[in-house]
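Incident log entry.

Two folding requests arrived from the same account within the same minute. Monitoring flagged them as a possible duplicate submission, but the sequences differ. Recording both here for audit purposes.

Request one:
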Amino acid sequence: METPELKKYPQLEEVVAFHGHMCPGLAIGYRAALAGLDRLAVTRASDEELVAIVENDSCSVDAVQVLTGATFGKGNLFFRDWGKQVFTFGRRDESRAVRVALKSPGREMSREERTAFILDAPVEEVLDIREVDLELPPPAVIHKSVRCDACGEQVMETRTIKQDRKTLCAECASHG
């Protein structure tokens, strides 16, 4: 897919620039994020008001980050390693959430065909979108950092492990 063709899709050039290339996974995240934002009637998060829960660590998540503004750093992007092209978006101010899942295309396609199908097909052919009851994760909390007694690196106090009267990071504790 050449760059001029990307211009017909709002913000897709920005998504591709962030990710580095166009691919089916990026198209999935692009359509899923736009569908979730639309259903929740919100725009990109400026802080933690919008939550994104992603069930994979594929290219699609880059599109979700760019379009929704949800990031690990802000504490409003959550990863569940379930290997599914499923995304849940939630509004903390309304305690509402929507689950967006990729539908099977029903036939084999080339990479280019799949990307075009995901971008151009009616949303109901590409995605299953439904409101869900979900207790959204609480906003991020900043915890005190302490020094690991083994490696000397700073670690969030709530992530330390006590072993033999020492305060250890999880990595040092696992080598114990």
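Request two (distinct sequence, not a duplicate):
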Amino acid sequence: MLASFARWLLGLFGWRVDFNGMPGPKGIAIVYPHTSNWDFVIGLLAKWVIPVPIHFVGKESLFRGLTGATLGRLMHRWGGHPVDRHHASGAVDQLAVLMRSQSVFWLVISPEGTRKHQPFLRTGFYHLALKLDLPLGLAYIDYAHRRVGVTEFVRMTGDEGSDLETIRSYYADKIGRYPEKASAIAFRDRAPSS
């Protein structure tokens, strides 16, 4: 019933969900671009339409505190997991342990980590996909065409330049609510060790 309601509500506002199934029981999906608070609402409705238990991560503050107590319970119920964005490598290890412990687990991440323009993406999704050798779903919320979904799955190779080009090419025609806020599909340059 929830899936029917979510599909009806999205349709009422002219949105369509694109989904052809997942390539296996586990994987990671990134949602890009993320430029508006409405992305969460549209994404949550799409999650209810798609017949796969999908999990997501959100900043820790959404799950705690006075407002977080109620919101946090709802977020957990909807498949949310809090993550400390200031300790990326620790978050990757924690998520890897969580995903290994489950027989079915699709994790959705916004690699931008914010709705503001950034010159790079956060790398947690990339390291997690490589660490667990899982497919990466390229999910989108495309305001230009009023489509939300995931139909393309790729494997990361460890060659950052090539992998980023694959991602960049796929998202070239996907437009966020505020296109100027979309982050660059690039990773922060790492200084060589001395």
